[in-house]
From TrEMBL:
GO terms for molecular function: tyrosine-tRNA ligase activity. Its EC number is 6.1.1.1. ATP binds at K239. A motif ('KMSKS' region) lies at residues 236-240. Keywords: Aminoacyl-tRNA synthetase, ATP-binding, Cytoplasm, Ligase, Nucleotide-binding, Protein biosynthesis, RNA-binding. SUPFAM superfamilies: Alpha-L RNA-binding motif, Nucleotidylyl transferase. A motif ('HIGH' region) lies at residues 44-53. Belongs to the class-I aminoacyl-tRNA synthetase family. TyrS type 1 subfamily. Homodimer. L-tyrosine binds at Y39, Y176, Q180. The lineage of its organism: Bacteria, Pseudomonadati, Pseudomonadota, Alphaproteobacteria, Sphingomonadales. It is found in: Cytoplasm. It comes from Novosphingobium cyanobacteriorum. This is Tyrosine--tRNA ligase.
Length: 409
RNA sequence: GGACAGGUGGCCGAGUGGUUAAAGGCAGCAGACUGUAAAUCUGCCCGCGCAAGCGUACGCUAGUUCGAAUCUAGCCCUGUCCA
């Protein structure tokens, strides 16, 4: 690997954030000489970002750690269009109120990981609706449209994918890359932003912004992308059967968030520690080197650290404690899902559904029939089984990992 | 506007009148093995019901038929080519 002279690129490089750079030398020089404001764009399609966006958020954190200025761009305007990148289907339209509410909710996570303020290296959050919303159509076509050729736009992966798969792409979405390019140019002009970062799928969009800025203002700006993050078994980060691993507490309980990291694939532990925690590299190297079942200790550290950063110290401690009593001790942890039971007894099927371990009664029955249901550690094979509460808490499990508590009301 | 092709379960994809709640694959859940890992093997995988069974489902709506995902008509949507 190249020997970088700037703290920024050294930091990003050694922790595994760099996939592609538009001009490594130029950026390296710039970052070693001055504070570089850099931005990453985020969608506002949901009230919470998920783990898939955490690499980007952490990269902004690294930017700040290296003495530069993170700019969080919320795509309030572009969300109204829908990024076609990597998608077969057009997005549904969101109302302005929904988008505004989403942005407010997403902001809470950034507040935990970045230091916001007015200082030179304090983070700021901007919303591209502020400038894109004011842009007139003719004005846009005239100013920006002349710098894009359709010939070139058609060669972009985001467009080609749709065409190859014979999926529709609306004109609306086709314009996304233009607006995103315009964002970079705008941020450069008004906030002195010099760098855009993003996932590797954003390379085309980033390059567009760089070229647009050069053509319109003759200013040089830089782009950097992260590797596409997949888990070792080839899945996208942040997706589980139960749905996305959301960063916001109200979208996913801290316990489940902690469990996501605790259950990481062995092969991913080192990579995740580097990307998602602030632990020093030599410490990570030590943890990563653990063999066999000892690697579980590293996974606990990973889960603790990430949960602490994203959800706070308390949440991390509570989750770790719950894991210790639940898995090691066979007891009950405070974080486990709980079902209040008013009666003195409850059927196993109702208990499983009530705890959210089965989506329907039929599913719960199949679980019991398959031998996956346990009450206080004992397998229950009779779907008519009644659990007697008798004033104490009962532990109900689905499989080996999902545990819940029945509590007399 | 015209011609042609197409719209099937979370996804991909078979299925051209009954034996189809719909092959197969992926994803998922559970069991075994383990380390709350991976890989592998096994079972499950629309809803309600103990069950027989009932309900719902193959773009939408009407129809033909004892019977339709399968046939007919109209409509909606998509792609390709033509205007």
């Amino acid at each position: 690997m190249t020997q970088y002279k700037s703290d920024l690129l050294r930091l990003l490089d050694e922790r595994g954030y760099i996939h592609q750079l538009t001009d490594a030398e130029g950026l390296d020089t710039l970052a070693s000489e001055q504070v570089v404001p850099g931005y990453i764009g985020f969608d506002a399609t949901a009230p919470s970002l998920h783990v898939g966006s955490l690499v980007q958020i952490m990269m902004l954190r690294r930017l700040q750690q290296a003495g530069h200025k993170p700019v969080v761009l919320m795509g309030g305007g572009t969300t109204r269009i829908g990024d076609p990148t990597g998608r077969d289907e057009s997005r549904k339209m969101l109302t302005d109120e929904t988008i505004a509410a989403n942005i407010a909710s997403i902001r809470t996570v950034f507040a935990k990981l970045l230091t916001f303020g007015d200082g030179p290296t304090d983070a700021i959050m901007v919303n591209n609706n502020d400038w894109l919303g004011k842009l007139g159509y003719i004005e846009l076509l005239q100013e920006v449209g002349t710098h894009f050729t359709v010939n070139r736009m058609l060669t972009f992966d985001s467009v080609k994918l749709r065409l190859d798969r014979e999926q529709p792409m609306t004109f609306l979405e086709f314009n996304y890359m233009i607006l995103q390019g315009y964002d970079f140019r705008h941020l450069n002009k008004h906030n002195a932003v010099r760098l855009q970062m993003g996932g590797s799928d954003q390379w085309g969009n980033i390059v567009n912004g760089i070229e647009l800025t050069r053509r319109m203002d003759q200013r040089e700006v830089f782009g950097l992308t992260t590797p596409l993050l997949t888990t070792a078994d080839g899945k996208k980060m942040g997706k589980t059967a139960a749905g996305a691993v959301w960063l916001n507490e109200d979208a996913l309980p801290a316990w489940d968030f902690w469990q996501y990291w605790r259950n990481a694939d062995d092969r991913d532990v080192g990579k995740f520690l580097r990307l998602f925690t602030d632990l020093p590299l030599d410490e990570i190297a030590r943890l990563e080197a653990l063999q066999g079942s000892e690697i579980n200790a590293a996974k606990v550290v990973l889960a603790n650290e990430v949960t602490r950063l994203v959800r706070g110290e308390e949440a991390a401690k509570a989750a770790e404690a719950t894991a210790a009593t639940t898995f090691a001790g066979g007891g009950l942890g405070a974080d486990l899902p709980t079902l209040e039971v008013a009666e003195s007894e409850i059927g196993i099927i109702d208990a499983l559904v009530g705890l959210g371990f089965a989506a329907s009664r039929g599913e719960a029955k199949r679980l019991v029939a398959g031998g996956g249901a346990r009450v206080d550690g004992e397998a229950v094979s009779d779907e008519g089984y009644r659990i007697q509460l008798a004033d104490k808490e009962i532990r109900v499990s689905s499989g080996k990992k999902k545990h819940g508590v029945l509590r007399p009301a």
